[in-house]
Amino acid sequence: MTVEDAYALCHAASHTDNTPDIREVVEKYGEDAKADPVNRPAHYTSGGIECIDAMQAAFGDEAVKDFCLCNAFKYLWRHRQKNGVEDLKKARWYLNRLITAMEAEE
Q1: What would the pLDDT profile of 5-45 be if each residue is shown by its tens digit?
Q2: Where are the alpha helices (DSSP H) in the chain?
Q3: Helical ranges in 13-60 per DSSP H
Q4: In this prediction, what percent of the chain has a pLDDT beyond 70?
């Protein structure tokens, strides 16, 4: 998905929360950041924007918080059978994002 595709998707969706404009997200997280398997997987940063940031712009804060909770659960569930510590780090990443979002609401 290109940045322009994500931008069009975001404007097609109606949302009433404080989700950022897709261009603000691209500017903030630009393409120059290094990929790493936990914090910036290359397959989730196509077109200069991370998938989760495009999801937030398209679907809103609550949907992304639910997504983070479910993904943390998934990585905790599978860590012994698949990627061990890397999966635990991914679970922590999603929990940290969820916690940050919830603290911002307080």
Answers
A1: 554 555 454 444 565 665 565 566 555 455 677 777 676 66
A2: 3-12, 22-29, 51-59, 61-78, 85-105
A3: 22-29, 51-59
A4: 60
40 beta partners: 36
Q: Are 40 and 34 in contact (CB under 8 A)?
A: yes
* Nearest-angstrom CA–CA distance, 76 and 97: 16
Residue among 56, 87, 50 nearest 72 (CA): 87
Nearest to 75 by CA among 91, 60, 95, 92: 91
- Tokens 């599978």, residue located: 78
Token digits of residue 8: 């069009």
Helix, coil or strand: residue 36 = strand
Name the 3-class secondary structure at 40: strand
Structure confidence at residue 60 (pLDDT): 94
Residue entry with tokens 């404009």 = 21
For residue 86, pLDDT beyond 60: yes
Q: Which two tokens stand for residue 11?
A: 């404007």
